[in-house]
Amino acid sequence: MEWNPETLQFLSQCFLNTLSPLPEPRRRAEAALAEASERSNYGLAVLQLVAEPSVDEQIRHAAAVNFKNHLKARWAPSPPKEPNVPSLTPISNAEKELIKSLIVSLMLKLSPKIQSQLSEALAVIGKHDFPLQWPTLLPELVANLVSLTQANDYVSVNGVLATINSLFKKFRYQFKTNELLVDLKECLDKFAKPLLELFKRTVNVIDQAVGSGAADAATLKLYVESQRLCCRIFYSLNFQELPEFFEDHMDEWMIEFKKYLTVKYPVLEDSGNDGLAVVDGLRAAVCENIGLYMEKEEELFQKYLSGFVEAVWSLLVVSSASSSRERLTVTAIKFLTTVSTSVHHALFERDDILEQICQSIVIPNVMLRDEDEELFEMNYIEFIRRDMEGSDLDTRRRIACELLKGIAMHYKVKVTEKVSLQIKNCLALFAQNPEANWKYKDCAIYLVVSLATKKAGGSTVSTDLIDVENFFGSVIVPELQSRDVNAFPMLKAGALKFFTMFRNQLPKDVAMALLPDVVRFLAAESNVVHSYAASCIEKLLLVKDEGTRPRYTATDISPFLLVLMSNLFSALEKPESEENQYIMKCIMRVLGVAEISRDVASACITGLTNVLNRVCPNPKNPIFNHYLFESVAVLIRRACEGDPTLISAFEGSLFPSLQMILANDVSEFFPYAFQLLSQLVELNRPPVPQHYVQIFEILLLPESWKKSANVPALVRLLQAFLRKAPHELNQQGRLSNVLGIFNTLISSPSTDEQGFYVLNTVIENLGYDVISPFVGHIWVSLFNRLQHGRTVKFMKNLVIFMSLFLVKHGLQNLVVSMNAVQKDVFHTIVEQFWVPNLKLITGSVELKLTSVASTKLICESSTLLDSKVRGKMLDSIVTLLSRPEEERLSEEPDVPDFGETVGYNATFVHLYNAGKKEEDPLKEVNDPKQYLVASMANHASSSPGMYPQLIRENLEAANQAALLQLCSSYNLSIV
After folding, report:
1. Prediction pTM value
2. Residue 667 to residue 679: CA distance in whole angstroms
3. Where is the Importin N-terminal domain (predicted)?
4. Does a structural domain hold residue 253?
5. Helix axes 370-378, 380-387, angle to 10 degrees
6. 73 burial type by CB count under 10 A (0-12 exposed, 13-18 middle, 19+ buried)
7. Taking the chain, what is the end-to-end CA distance rounded to the nearest angstrom?
8. What's the pLDDT tens digit per position in 543-560?
9. 860 lies in some domain
10. CA distances from 880 to 509, 731, 803, 822, 920 (A)
11. Are residues 598 and 508 in the same domain?
């Protein structure tokens, strides 16, 4: 694309039309730009348009956004995720170099709004090319910084610093590698000194402006923002390790850092217009820097520590009282927490300091504020994410408790004593005036819950602050028994959270007495309250006694089951809870525990299909949707297995929904729909109803298998059909279609395991007379994979398949069909693949199958295989049966390749409750070890003397001893 008046006119008009409120011109413009973006120098032309002063600012801003997105997509394009999607044409190297030569100077000439877009575009380039493939960038930025600071143009200075900050952020988030350290050294060599010089110059500018009284708020704001950006760059450059330059100049940095924590700037802080937020942003950045040094360079930082602790402390006492200073409060408390867990913890030892921490820092930050109430009411999902799911480490409430936990590492008794006193005081204040002082009770509950310690590897929590049962009875129970479920909802939420957290410690009779009250709270108007009630019930049903026995059973919940289910489904109709994942998870858990009568089953399948029909047109919440399908699966499993007459009723309810998913191409739900259909097919008795045969036809279409996410669920459904309707395969060439699917799956390492699942089900469920015309093609496919691209996983699956073939259709058919493809290939396959891979088999059914088949092979193949191969096979069988799995697998370095679920695309989610029962093709064999020695002893009696020599010459000493031990255990001998 050449830059000329026609291009200027074309691009200007297109970008103008992209801003149109009318959809038609907007779509035409977007399509024209998409087409133009495939042409060379398109990005360069758009950049030149952005720089054209004669073009309207709005059009240039739209062009700048397009330029940034163009670079994101094409500077280093990644291959498309889905097949048959064309790749984007990358930007040519010549165009890249021209863009890099222009972007910095153009960025600095333009308005702040456009400048920020070009700064982001520059960061996109930097992510791939900086610093080694763009060595001129930092010197150019440094030169600009020098001239801009001399001109006192801090608007542009901050633009450049923001760009550098974006470029350097990678040093904070990437793992330390040699490549990263090379990049870091390059940046330190070129920017550590200019950064310090700029920082010190701005220090002087601020001091002069404040000292002379000449500073106006707008100018001072620019200076302070410049220092904040310098601090963020400092953090990036020091994150991996302390560079020598910064160690040499530590005093210069630390003196100014401390000043920013202690000095006030009234002109800015009292001016309104977010002046205080700008200064606090600088202070927060300083706190992060000193926290970093405290963590990484404690020894070098020690001489500054007490001064910083005092400065941060003083700042916190003031800022904790203000709800608008959250970021500063959090970073400041984090710094003190780091100190409290270090060797310098004695700074917190004194009683008066602990008292002040509780009074001036912890309680003010834990106490609910207006914005907490607003979040509770307006955004319940975010409130729960922070409050119940522990994602609130960066909020005042949680971080204040983390400080107490940090101090308690060394002064547990003192912290317990002080906090217990605070809890009593809060509860006393509440008792004086419950209506007015309810937040004090919330504060007390929050302190207990947040400071409780979780036992490693379990859900049990403990606390020394209170006696759990007494606190529960006196503080929590009154809230749970309150008749008005909508009064003081935040207190109710806190009480439910306490019940949930301490569920293991509370006696069953105490919890059971209150469960009907928790069920009442499902009807609360507050989304948080009914979510917490659902979560409380769901977690209670998971409690186990003595490790494995569920504490709460179907008998416990049956008296109020109908009310519980009714309230749960009603909660899903409340505003904003239509896709409430806590409610749906509770439904799933209750259905997994309860005794499901016909009435309950009927009401639940109706309720669940109504929800499914509602979410189908626009699936939004994947967690909710997963629990929805799990709920349907568990209901099918528990109701229909108990009462098979319910199957047709369930099919009548579910089929329209499943057909809607397939007909409307709701791709997110395809794997779920196929798994539910598998479940229903498996529950039916032959002959399978006609409406399933129609689905079978869809299943055999090649288009159904194109999306990898669907493959595991489709295989599962195909297996269900093969087991339940094997006679259907003899009709209309369906077996040929099934084996075509196998052939496609087996050809790729990502789906070959799924291909074996299909093949094994065919071999297991069809007679040899039916499959014999196809066996030759099957071996050709398998031998091709064995020749080109074999993996350990493939070879183990091949051993399992051959074992299944042998036990189902006999050794003779196995040998003849293999050798028909290639002369004597059976002997080669056994010697080179079966024998060495047998010892790597895992899974109880697979282990039994392969060991029994291998035993049959030894006993039945004396004319087919020489004694050495049979001896080595016996050695592998004994290894398989006598050694623990981890010992056997460690012998094979690339074993991790087996069991990799590469075919399970990230969008495939397995339904636990729809899982199929593992089929055992050898139900008649109980003990494979006994089968081995019994078979060999029996065979040896007819050919005495053959086995002792074979064992002596081919089995390892440990396996000879293991075989002897097995013979002794079963009182058999191999002669």
Report:
1. 0.81
2. 19
3. 29-109
4. yes
5. 120
6. middle
7. 88
8. 998 868 999 999 999 999
9. no
10. 50, 41, 14, 30, 18
11. yes
